[in-house]
Amino acid sequence: MSWQPVVTAMLPEHLLLLGIVLLLVLEIASDKPRGALVVSLLIVGAATAAATWLYVTGYAAAPFPGHYSVNASGSLAKAVVLALAVPVLLLARDDFPEGPFYPLFLSSLYGFCLLLSSDSFLTLFLGLELMSLPVYVLVLLAFGRPESPEAALKYLVLGGTATAMFLMGVSLLYGGSATLALSSFAGALGSHDIMAIAAIVLIVLAFFLKAAIVPFHAWAPDAYEGASLPVTAYMATIIKAGVLLAALRLFGTAPVSGSMVDLLAILPLVSIVWGNLTAMRQRSFRRMIAYSSIAHAGYLFYAFLGAGPGRFQAVVFYLIAYGVMNILAFASIPPGDDDAKRDRLDHLQGLFHRNPYAAVMIGIAMLSLAGIPPFPGFVAKFLIFKNVIAAGYTTYAVLGLVGSYLGIYFYLRVIQVMFINPESASATRVGTGRLALAASVICLIPAILLSVFPNWVFVRF
Amino acid sequence: MADADLLNLVLFLPLAGIALLVAVPTGHDRQVRGLSFWVMVVQFVLTAWLYVRFDAQVAGLQFETRLPWIPDWGVYYQIGLDGYNVLLVLLTAFLGPLVVAGAFTAVTKDVKLFYAMVFLIQFAMLGAFVAQDLFLFYLFWETMMIPMFLIIGIWGGERRLYATYKFVLYTAFGSILMLAAVIYLVYSLQTTTGVTSFAFADLYRAKLPLHVQTLLLAAFGLSFAIKVPIVPLHTWLPDAHVEAPTTGSVILAGVLLKMGTYGFMKLGFPLFPDATRAFTPLIMTLAVVSIVYGACLALVQNDIKKIIAYSSISHLGYVMLGLASLDLLGIQGAVIQMVSHGLTAAGLFLIVGMIYERCHTRDLAAYGGIARLLPVYSLFFMLLTLASIGLPTTSGFTGEFLVLLGAFTASWPQYQQGNALPLVLSVVAVSGVVLGALYMLRLAQHFLFGAVKAPHAPLTDLDLREKLILAAIVVAVFALGLFPDEPMQKTELAAKQFQQLVTTPRLPGSKP
User: Fold this and answer.
1) Which residue segment(s) compose the domain that A126 sits in?
2) What ranges do the domains of chain B cover?
3) Cβ atoms < 10 Å from Cβ of A127
4) Which in A103, A349, B225, B507 has the greatest CB count within 10 A?
5) What is the ipTM of this complex?
6) Closest CA–CA distance from residue B335 to any residue of chain A (Å)
């Protein structure tokens, strides 16, 4: 095992590790450490550049054969999501000027990169857990609400349940196939052996829990509301992307059939309907986003009904469009007195008159999440349902579309609050902070590019 | 510049308008109004030029642009003018400056946002008319919803929130089912012929079994029927029209309603010919019900805007009747009626808006003898009323007459073969003309004549801006009514193509 492919193939991960070490050294070396944000931004930027370089040169290698390998499309996925982490970091400065947020954040990103390149259940598990464990702490960290500890505990316990289910499923698979390779999952998909079926179901349900699919969704609203804004943005976009991409890695291009179809269609369908219906009643912005993200997880798992390269395209495009728009929305929320007040929908009342740019940005994000043209969310939903119909599940597609229709109301309500409702008497003009502005621009440009040139993503996956 | 580029310029000019509006600093409302007006005028001039250059003898698309957009899916950015949309595009561009000018005194808050929304909806409407690719069409179709949501929601009347949510949620429901149908249609084309394409020209060649055609026609038809609107899917219209600001009502009645009929003409019926022919009796019945029921409802209203709103339902019933007749003159009459209704409804809403700005009430009982107070206003009011009724020499007469002629021509042979329903329906439809005269003249009588009463008297008569706007519409109405030959020639080949597409069976196994 020569060291050269290990260094090159894992370059993004090594850079992140370097960042973690640097941050810890900074923390230890001085009384009042400063510069954590700058170091993190530089490191994440460097990791993104490294992943892009790996993609552009088409570098493919397996430094740890059977466990970890790198190829072009995996590197591209890493580059895209690491780039998404940059605006999240920009948003973090207000809540986390210094402190353990940054090493935890980088560790979580490390886990994400790891799971994208995993070939065996060992590395997949390592990556999943490394991605999720820091987030349990991050939810608690800013302690902006009295409910934060409860939210973190709920997330921890239920996340632990997911881990347990996942491990049980993996061990059943190992028992049946005598190998830890990820390909045994796709092989077990078509099998009728009870042990294989049980393994598949356990693993899929573990992913459902991590992605907040009904009926395993109960942790999400509390966790999203209890966490501070940048952590919620991170959970809603990158963590969800990690879970879905891990599931994508497991399923590969294998078609699903038989009762697997019902598992992959019915629970996500219920999530779509339930998530959209309950989001209508929320008065807290983050809680509303949590319920709507339950629905979005439903759409994403729907994409697994399609087969072949269409599945990759649909999931990846949707994750990018959804991630970019969510962060755009979070970046544009104006600052407020305290976390609870800032989170309320009333805080956005008449925002168009106070800060037109922020109102338009949040409006664009809401419309894209609702799936209304001409925003990228529409193309993303179109792609998913196109694949489902092409696979032959027209009824499920129609039901899913009607479920997505239920989501239009609460997204429009946000627009109504911002544009139509008059601002309260005490409201003042608020400018957008420089970092928030930078974050929103970083998200807006890819969004426009995605809606005008969606082909760019399609030809690369 | 090549004509095809000119069409692209016409389409994207409103977006350039939005960019220019964003550049104007806040508070300079006069500049905003001027800028919006001149951009719309430029768009109209360019469109008129394209209309003049449109060759009536050429079948198929003119000024076409076809660029690959998502080649893997067979989605192309394909736009062009043909006999189906040339008149409607001209109508949209014609109403643009009038809509902008009509709002000069009515809209005083958030003026920049207002004109940005007007530009956005103009872009979406033009795009939906000129799109020749189903994905592109659907994109523009859906984009129309949100500017309308804001126009009604921000600048509308008392119950604007209720009206705008009703409008959006009602329309969106139809669109969602249409999306499923669009995907399924393209997928069916792919599996039966191997062609992956969203282009209309390719989709017209799809061969689908009858039950599939019926389901897809129902999905497309639901969406279009909500837009037209056809009874019983019309309940969003009175609320939306009444609560919308004048400009919103003009855009809604002038152009947006035509989207539904255009959708039927370009997509719904030609894409599923066998299902259309099987359900022609139902379509004709619904059309005639719309004509008569809409007219009866208009007869009993006391809100001026509601009278005009219900009259829209009635007039567009004629369009559906003309399309369902599958007779060449009937189809052309339907197109003329679309344009005519666009002009007269726009004019009526504008003129009602003008009195509303002065008196702040829409209650018919509050007005009387306006002819003595505002003579110039009343002249225009009467002219537009007569145009709406369909007095000969106005465009309304041409449209309604041709539609009824087409309906009778199509129903007579069927009567001779023993099927009396179309003939009965056509006779009932004629009663719509009488009812139309009834409710409009009732409006005119209560409003213009009788004892003089008006809130906020003394009232000022029309100023120059208002006179020019109304004069433009009246001139257009009479031009179309007195010289319909030239527009009809431009639409003739498209009408023939429509007739041929709908009457040729296209089931699997039939000859291509």
Assistant:
1) 1-141
2) 296-503
3) 25
4) B225
5) 0.91
6) 28
